[in-house]
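Aim 2, interim progress. The first record below pairs a target sequence with its structure tokens.
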Amino acid sequence: MKKIISLVVILMVTCVVATGYAQVRHGSFDVTPYVGFYKFEGNEDMDSSIALGMRLGYNVTKYFGVEGYAHWVPTRFQTYYQGYSNEVWYDNTGETVNTFGYGIEGVVNLLPDRNIIPFLAAGIGGMYYSHANEDATDNRHSKFAVSYGGGLKWFFAENWAVRGDVRHIMNFDSFHNNLMGTIGLTYAFGGKRAAAPAPAPEPAAEAIEKGRTTLDVKFDLDKSVIKKGYYGDIDNLVSVMKQYPETNVALEGHTCSLGSDAYNKRLSQRRADAVKQYMVEKGGINASRLNAIGYGEERPIASNATEEGRRQNRRTEAVVEYLIKK
């Protein structure tokens, strides 16, 4: 038992973690040539030796599979027999004997969705000896055998794995406890691959609409005082700027043509500053978001030749554009 535990530990240390592959697939087949050691029980009177073999498996589900195996163990008899046979002296000390093991096992994969998969196995089979010996083989060429054990599979690529196995093999009629440890290279093919996860749905495209708010505050001749009738228009612009904090606004003051250019420039600046002061003090807008500019009489929107045209030109105006996401 200590030898079995030691070998399992060695196999676990050997199988270092690599890129993960979930490789035990429902309905898949695998082929595993292997090499290892075979130790006969002491009173079976045969030398321990190398074991060479092959496993062929089918995974009924990803958790359970069946597999057949066969291996060859070249060994020698440790006992000797001397005597006459048909008046001929013979001595079989150290005689070579070829031993063949075979059988079928059930395999339980404990963690089939990992790249390192521990498993348990148990089954029935037989042993065949090329020579019969009374002390070693009970003068039988064939024996019934039962096996159990486990191991690890390490999938290092899509269809390839390194596999380690340990088996306790019990031969009958005379009961013998034998131990076999092997390492092999597994090629897996066929079966149903796990469906690739569905791609994450692309975020729905946001509907974007362009918004625009204007401001047009009229002033009396030679005045920069905001008339009460325009408070609502300014408050509306304040509300938009609070809803869209990324917006900044230029407040542009203007005059009609009455008066000198220098005086009109100062008057237009006072008109722009009046609207800015209202938006900062009454509306709570940060002053850094507002730029007040006076243009004087440089940018009329109507003719200064008429009283109505001059009334239209005495103004502070602003335009703000923003994106509305829906």
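The second target in this work package is listed in the same format:
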Amino acid sequence: MGSPRLVTNTVVHPASHIEIGVTYLKNQANIPLNMKKKEKKTPVKKRSKSKDKKTKPKGTPVLSPVVQTGGRSLVPYDPLQMYLMEIKHYTLLTREEEVELGKLVREKNDQKAAYRLVTSNLRLVVKIAMDFHRYWTKSLLDLIQEGNVGLLQAVQKFDPYRGIKFSYYASFWIKAYMLKFIMENWKMVKIGTTQTQRKLFFNLAKERDKLISQGYEPETRLLAERLDVKEKEVEEMSQRLGSGEISLNAPVGMDGKEVYGSFVPDPGMAIDEALSEKQNRELLLEKLKEYREGLAGKELDIFDNRIMAESPLTLQELGDRYHISRERIRQIQERIIKGIRKWLMEEIPNFEENFSDFIK
């Protein structure tokens, strides 16, 4: 029959299809095969070395500067404004939500609940920092950072069962951390280490302005009365606030050879004073030993274990030892002390003047 024969079990390799296609293209174009390959490469232009260096790999993101430098430049990058825009996304909490989250933090130490309490009150920290910014003009972000630390502390200490609003409770922790930061960084040398000095630091200038507005002269005495402190403390704080730091190695005057450190008094005792005190102690101990030789019985026991001992016995312990009352032991002790004073005044010249600190 004239029908075509079907060849079975014959496998045709895929490469044969490629060769058939290439042969067909060669016959149609009537050109050599190697020319056909070159024709495909001709549209590709050779690039210079300088252009190849600037070529970025495929898929590399294109980065553009945040601040454009040109005739129409954008507003410069402000981290404070960026922070304020960021915290606006956190919603405020209701009173019920604060109590519920506070219970989770207190009872289960739930970190997600603590996170919500902190983020929802970040705007409160900014508001308080704005109020304190008049004291600290260097960086508002520093105050905000310290206030955030106080906010974290408030979350850990908050007790939701007392019926206090969390924002009200947290404001005290936030203010405390901000005040501590201002106090420690106002100057290189700390100007407020006690409670009285901290009180003067924040209230002295305010009270002085108040007196001036009322028509009074802000004298030291009047300021001390208003602030309930001593006049000397007001004078010291005024000097600290009004003067700057001076290095101890800085010369005194323009052409001075002396430095400020040479005028600082030595806190230790002078050599002659230390030697004199040592001699007085030795003389006093020698006379006390002589006085001890004249004592006996209860008086000697009270002298050794009550008057001269580093860890003296109590009146009750000595009374139980001799079966007498505490009051009787105290009377004997007072008689011995009076006898010691009389003996030393007779044996040591100028005893009242030189040994007033040894015998009370």
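The radius of gyration is 45 Å. This observation will shape the mutagenesis plan for the next reporting period.
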